[in-house]
Write a structure and sequence with these properties.
Helices cover about 20% and strands about 25% of the residues. Strands 1, 2, 3, 4, 5, 9, 10, 11 and 12 form a nine-stranded mixed beta sheet that branches. A three-stranded antiparallel beta sheet has the order 6-8-7. The protein is α/β, with parallel strands linked by helices.
């Protein structure tokens, strides 16, 4: 089966429908599948449930889907960099399922591993546990959390081969590997596309068996959420 598609629209062809659940990799703006997000926006699909650590920032990443009101619900951990996210949630326009960050990661990993639920101490005694099953193990209380599984996962990789094997670069690895395992279909955008066999098997982060479609997106924009700088120290000033 040919996995490589000529453009992002072709890579998503036939996969999108109203009311679907989408996992979107990335952390902040690092490692986000931005080209695929724009293709989803352009498709006009709506009433989406999106599982992502956050929703990008205003005008970048998943923020563009908030602008077009295509997202009905977010399953997230952090929303602090997106004013529109906060406005839509506080006005009741956007549904939000908040998760502790580690719990969110484990819910995704569990979904990819075929584990329907698990127990964790995180959130016990707080509103996180409201309405959930709480049980005692070895004298400690644990709350049950459900695994997460999506109709579609979109991920961004630094390198991929034509069989779908993926390599992520440094912190852009973040949520991408676990999300690639936790959906009916995973579509990956890759910065560098190489022939099968050109990636050392020991360097593969996501095996190609999890990836159904690939699109080459060279030279993507590398956004920075909060740019922090300091004056350059000149050697003569030190001496």
């Amino acid at each position: 089966m040919k996995k490589v598609h000529s453009n992002v629209s072709a890579a998503l062809d036939g996969l999108l429908f109203d009311g679907m659940t989408i996992m979107a990799g990335g952390f902040g703006l690092c490692g986000i599948p931005e080209a695929l997000i724009y293709a989803i926006r352009d498709s006009g699909v709506k009433d989406l449930t999106v599982i992502s650590n956050n929703a990008g920032v205003d005008g970048i990443g998943l923020g563009v889907l908030l602008e077009t009101r295509q997202i009905r619900k977010m399953v997230s951990s952090y929303v602090g960099e997106n004013k529109l996210f906060a406005q839509q949630y506080l006005s009741g326009e956007l549904e939000l399922e908040f998760n502790p960050q580690g719990t969110l990661a484990e819910r995704i990993r569990a979904g990819g591993a075929g584990i329907p639920a698990f127990y964790t101490k995180t959130g016990v005694g707080t509103i996180i546990a409201d309405g959930k099953d709480v049980r005692e193990f070895d004298g400690e209380s644990y709350v049950m959390e459900r695994g997460l599984f999506a109709d579609l996962s979109i991920v961004h990789a630094f390198k991929g081969d034509t069989e779908g094997n993926l390599v992520y670069r440094k912190t852009a690895r973040n949520f991408n590997p676990i999300m690639a395992t936790a959906a009916k279909v995973t579509v990956a955008e890759v910065e560098h596309l190489v022939d099968a066999g050109k990636i050392d098997p020991d360097q593969v982060h996501t095996p190609g068996i999890f990836v159904k479609r690939i699109v080459h997106v060279p030279n993507p924009a590398k956004h920075i959420e909060q740019r922090t700088t300091r004056p350059r120290i000149i050697a003569s000033e030190v001496n």
